[in-house]
Amino acid sequence: MSSEHLPSEADHGPAGQVAVADHEDPFKDPGLPPHEPRKQDIDERSAKRSERTVALLFTISMLATIGFIASFVAFPVDKMAYVWPLGHVSILHLMLGLTLGIALFCIGAGAVHWARTLMSDVEIADERHDIEADAETRAKVFADFKQGAEESGFGRRKLLRNTLFGALTLLPLSGIVLLRDLGPLPEDKLRHTLWGKGKRLINENTEEPLRPEDITLGSLAFAMPEGLKKDDHDFNVEIAKAALMLVRIHPDDIKDKKSLDWGHDGILAFSKICTHVGCPVSLYEQQTHHVLCPCHQSTFDLADGAKVIFGPAGHALPQLKIHVNDDGYLEALGDFAEPVGPSFWERG
Q1: Distance, CA of 271 to CA of 319 (rounded, Å)
Q2: Torsion from C-alpha of 82, 88, 90, 95, nearest 10 degrees
Q3: Comparing C-alpha atoms, which of 186, 39, 167 is closest to residue 107?
Q4: Which CATH number fits domain 189-347: 2.40.50.1020, 3.40.50.300, 2.102.10.10, 3.40.1180.10?
Q5: What pTM value is reported for the model?
Q6: CA distances from 133 to 144, 149, 291 (A)
Q7: N or C: which end of the chain has fewer CB within 10 A?
Q8: Is the confidence at residue 20, as pLDDT, over 70?
Q9: Rounded distance between C-alpha atoms, residue 64 and residue 59, angstroms
Q10: Cα separation values, 186 from 79, 181, 182, 273, Å
C-alpha cells in the first residue's frame, strides 16, 4: 500500500479509535440550490426568438409530413439509386425514412426546446403523501395543473399552439398513407390487362405469334399479349393478369354458344388465372375438356364457358374474344369482358 493511502494520526483518536466528524448531522439535506433565471425569463426578445425557433421546428415537421405523402405518390418502389454508404437503395424507401424521421424529430425537438426555454423551470419540492389522495390534495393537483398550463404559455403563445396542432394533425396522415402497401391504390388496375383490340397472341415459350394451325385439337397452349417481353421489369406484374390459355375443341362439343362465337374454329382463349385465389390453371383433361387448378382443385369446364364444376372458385374463367387477322395470326378483339382472378369485383 502506498503512503498516501495509509491512515494518518488525524484519522484516528487515541488508542486507534476512529475519529468522528465535527458536525452533528453528516447526511443533512442541503436543500435546493438558489434558482437562476434563464435569459428568456428576463428578456422578452430572447423569449420571442425561442418561440420562433419552436414554431419553425413544428412547421418543418408539417412540411416533412407533406413530403412523406408526396414521396409515396412521386417515386415508384422499384426506382433505385446509389447512396453512399448504403449502396443501391429504393428512392421511395429512402425518402419515406428521411421525411418521416424529420417529421418526428422536429416535433420532439420543438417540444423539448419549448419546455427548456419557455415553460417555467422553477424547482418545487413537495413532500410525499399517502397513495390515496384527499380532497385537499386533489384540489391542489388541479390547481397545479392550471398553473402549469398558464406558465407554459399554451393559451398566450398562439403561434406555438397553432403550429403544434398543425404538426400533430398532419403527422398521423403518414400512417394512413402507409395503408397503400396493403394493396393497389383505388384505381382500376385490376380491372384491365394488357390485352386490347389488335394485340396478337404470342406463344409464351417461343415468343412467336400464334396461327390457328399451331393449336391442335385436344391441346392446351399458353399465350401472352403482343408487346410484352420476358426481360421487361414489370413482366411478372403484367403476366399475372394477362396470362392466357388456348384450347382447341371440336365445335360440336362446345356447349356454350357465346364461347363458340368468341373463338375461332373451336379455338377458345380463357384467362389462366384461377378465380379462387389467383393460382395458374394448367392441368387439362382432354376427354372431358376439364381444366384443374392445382392449388385447391377448382375445376372448370372449357366446353361450357369455363364454368366452375367443382371446388372453391367463385365464377367462371373470363374468356378473351379472338379472331384471325389478315396475316393469318390469332388476334384479340379487346380485353377480357370482366376482371381476371379472384372475385373482388363481384362484391364492389
Answers
A1: 6
A2: -50
A3: 167
A4: 2.102.10.10
A5: 0.51
A6: 15, 22, 76
A7: N
A8: no
A9: 9
A10: 22, 12, 11, 21
Say how far apart CA 87 and CA 75 lie, in whole Å.
18
Query: pLDDT, tens digit, for every residue of 157-167?
Result: 888 888 999 99
Give buried/exposed letters for 201-240 (b at 16+ CB in 10 A, else e): bbebeeeebbebebbeeeebbbbbbbebeeeeeeeeebbe
How far is Cα 243 from Cα 202, in angstroms, rounded to an integer? Answer: 11
What long-range pairs does 104-107 form, CB within 8 A, spacing at least 24? Answer: 104/61, 104/171, 106/57, 106/58, 106/60, 106/61, 106/64, 106/167, 107/57, 107/58, 107/61, 107/164, 107/167, 107/168, 107/171
Cell of 342: 379472384
Q: Which three cell numbers stand for residue 222?
A: 399458353
